[in-house]
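From: lab user (bench 3)
To: helpdesk
Subject: output format question, protein + FE2/S2 (inorganic) cluster

Hello, I'm new to running complex predictions and I'm not sure whether the block I got back is the full result or only part of it. Here's what I submitted:
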Amino acid sequence: MCFLCRMDSVLTISQVSRRSGVASSALRFYEERGLIASERAGSGHRRYPRSVLRRIAFIVFAQKIGLTLEEIGEELAQLPADRIPTRRDWARLSGKWTKRIDQRIAELKRLRAGLTQCIGCGCLSIDKCALANPADRAGRKGPGPRYWLA
Ligand code: FES
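Helpdesk reply: Thanks, we reran it on our side. This is the complete output you should expect:
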């Protein structure tokens, strides 16, 4: 049975937006990227299964810890397609995030420290650069703020 047959368990895009706190435009974007799915009502309007709220919460949190949309798509692809994911399914995904969260914390600490120090970006514009990055030595290791990218 399609989820449109269970009208009380489906949500409009406005309802999903209100309940998830994510703008309708972002929901359409997620859908274009294949991260969430809807079916069309007879009117052509999108209808989402209630379980989409959990997927959206996952997407929002995954973005906050630094996963790209491609990575999020790969993670979501591991969920069962033939049934609503269980708590165990979700736990399996988020359980892999501990390492990622630790990496993100370390990045943020480096970022915070770098706010007042040379970050090896090649600008040589603050007084610390002459000591920390003489003649843009960091640039030999590659582009971008090399000391943030450690
Ligand atoms: S802050 Fe850019 S090279 Fe030092």
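A quick orientation on your result: Residues 118-126, 129, 133 surround FE2/S2 (inorganic) cluster (CB under 6 Å). Let us know if anything else is unclear.
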